Amino acid sequence: MVPNYITINDVGPRDGLQNQPKLLTKEQRLSLISALIDAKVPEIEVGAFVSPKSVPAMAGTAELFAALENSTSLLSALIPNMKGFELAMSAQVPVMSLVVAASNTMNLKNIRMSTEDSIRVSKDVLKVAKEQGANVQAYVATAWACPFEGKIGADSVFSVTEKLLQAGASNIVIADTIGAANPLEVNQLMEAMASRFDLAQLSCHFHDTRAMGLANVYAAITAGIRKFDASIAGLGGCPFAPGASGNVATEDVVMMLEQMGFSTGIDMALLVKAADLAIELTGTAKGGNAKPWIENYYLN
C-alpha cells in the first residue's frame, strides 16, 4: 500500500442512480460510466444484479458490463444473494459486493432477514465464490447509526466484519449509510478496526447528509484508511432514511485529497465534466459543494 496514494471507487452509477426519480437508459448510464473511465477513476460501481421490478434503475446491468469489457477501471456490481452472484458470474463481473447491515432492524426492513440470516446467505455466496475464484467484497452498512435503532455499538461492526472476512470476503467497506457519523466517531471506530483487521482490506463509504462527509473522510484517513467510495456530483441517498442526502461527492473528495498532497491518479478536469454530465442526465444532482471553486481552478 503506497502511503500517499488513495483509491477512489465511484459508486454513482449504482448507489447514486438507484433511487433517482428519473430512470436513465442503459445508453445514458454507459455514457456516465465512460466519462468516469475517461477521467481515470480507478474503480467504478457499474450497477446491481437485482430484480428489475424492485429496482428498475438497475435493469440491464449485464449489458453494461458487456459494453465495458475493455475498461481500464476496475468495475464492480452489487449482488444481494446467490442468484445475483450467478448473474454477475455470467456477466464476468470483476468485483462483486454483498451488503450486511450491522443493525438487525435495518436488515429486516431492507431485505426481510435478520443480521444472522443475512450473514448466513453471504457465507453461502462467499463459499461458492472462493471455489470459483471470484472476487467478492462485503459492505457493513449502518456502521455508526441506524435510522431505526440509533447508535450502533462498535462490537456489532467488529462481529459482522470478522464473520465476513473469515468466510472469504476480499475486502470490507465500512458504510455510514445514512450520514449520521461525526469525525470523532469515525476516527475512533476506524482506529479500532485498524488494530483488529488488515488495513489493506478496509475502506469507507460516507454520505453527506449532515455536511460532514469530507470531514469523515479526513477522520478515516488519519486512522490509516486509504480507499473510499464517493459518488460523482454527490448522487445517492438512502430509501430507508427520510432526508438522507447523497454520497460525498467524488470531485470534493479528490479536490481535498490533492490539496492535502495525496495522489488519486484522477484527471480532475475530466472528472468535472463527468459531474456536469451527471447533473445533466439526472436533473437532480447538484454537484460537489466545492463545484464553483473546482471549475475556476481546474477549467480556467
Description:
The strands form 2 sheets. The chain has an 8-stranded parallel barrel with strand order 1-2-3-4-5-8-9-10, surrounded by 8 helices. A two-stranded antiparallel sheet has the order 6-7. The protein has 300 residues and is an alpha/beta fold. It contains 12 helices and 10 strands. The protein has one domain (7-299): Aldolase class I (TIM Barrel, Alpha-Beta Barrel), CATH 3.20.20.70.
Brief sketch in words of this structure:
This protein has 300 residues and is of the alpha/beta class. Helix content is 44%, strand content 16%.
Order of helices and strands: EHHEHEHEHHEEEHEHEHEHHH
Corresponding CATH architecture = Alpha-Beta Barrel
Q: How much strand? A: 15-25%
Number of domains: 1
Assigned CATH superfamily: Aldolase class I
Categorize the overall geometry.
globular
- Percent of residues in helices: 40-55%
Q: Radius of gyration from the CA trace?
A: 18 Å
- CATH class descriptor name: Alpha Beta
Strand ordering within the main sheet: 1-2-3-4-5-8-9-10
The helix count comes to 12
Through-space gap between termini: 34 Å
SS content category:
alpha/beta
Could you describe the largest sheet, including whether it forms a barrel? 8 strands, parallel, barrel
List strands and helices in order, with pairings.
Blueprint: E1 7-10, H1 12-16, H2 26-38, E2 43-48, H3 61-67, E3 74-78, H4 82-90, E4 95-101, H5 104-111, H6 115-132, E5 135-141, E6 145-146, E7 150-151, H7 154-167, E8 172-176, H8 183-196, E9 202-206, H9 213-222, E10 227-230, H10 250-259, H11 268-282, H12 291-299
